[in-house]
Amino acid sequence: MTPELKQKWIEKLESGQYKQCTGVLYNGDGYCCLGVLIEAAGGEFVQTAEADEDYGYQAEYDPKPINGIEVNDGVEVLSNLGLEMFGLTADQQQMLTRLNDGERNRKDSDGNPLPDLKPKTFREIAQVIREEL
């Protein structure tokens, strides 16, 4: 990741201008931290599926390709090409997703329950990005 993109991403996460959501990159109202990265890189989201309340389906949004590259792989994660373009590894994406979404139903190596991890705020995630990426 270029230092310029990293700084822009951090600034956007800390700006207070983005509402946070979980489970998707963008839901029409809020963003995952990776959705904010897409915006920081100049991407924009478009609606690709209508909501259907009768069946419990929410509207879906996907980012337009950036420089001809499809940066997402479904509504929840970045594609391999997106990861490469942004300079992230799959492990880093998984860490960022866990920070953003939290984690439930965790177990230790013996199968014993562990406490749930609560989602981190965008400001907390920005600090991790600053220090670890």
Please give a quick description of this structure:
By secondary structure, this protein is of the alpha+beta class. Helices cover 38% and strands 10% of the residues. It has a two-stranded antiparallel sheet. A two-stranded antiparallel ribbon has the order 3-4.
Detail the topology: elements first, then pairings:
Blueprint: H1 3-14, H2 33-40, E1 45-49, E2 60-63, E3 72-73, E4 77-78, H3 80-86, H4 90-101, H5 122-132
Antiparallel strand pairs: 1-2, 3-4
Helix pairs in contact: 1-2, 1-5
How does this structure look, described?
By secondary structure, the chain is of the alpha+beta class. It has one domain. Helix content is 38%, strand content 10%. The protein has helices at residues 3-14, 33-40, 80-86, 90-101, 122-132, and strands at 45-49, 60-63, 72-73, 77-78. 24% of the residues are buried.
Derived from helix and strand composition plus strand pairing, the structural class reads alpha+beta
Beta-strand residue percentage: 5-15%
Whole-number total of structural domains: 1
Main sheet: strands, sense, barrel:
2 strands, antiparallel
> Order of SSEs, N→C?
HHEEEEHHH
How do the strands of the widest beta sheet line up side by side? 1-2
Overall average pLDDT:
91
- What is the rounded Rg? 15 Å
- Percent helix, as a range, is 25-40%
Number of helices: 5
Low-confidence stretches: none
Distance between the termini: 8 Å
Count of extended strands: 4
| Coarse shape | globular
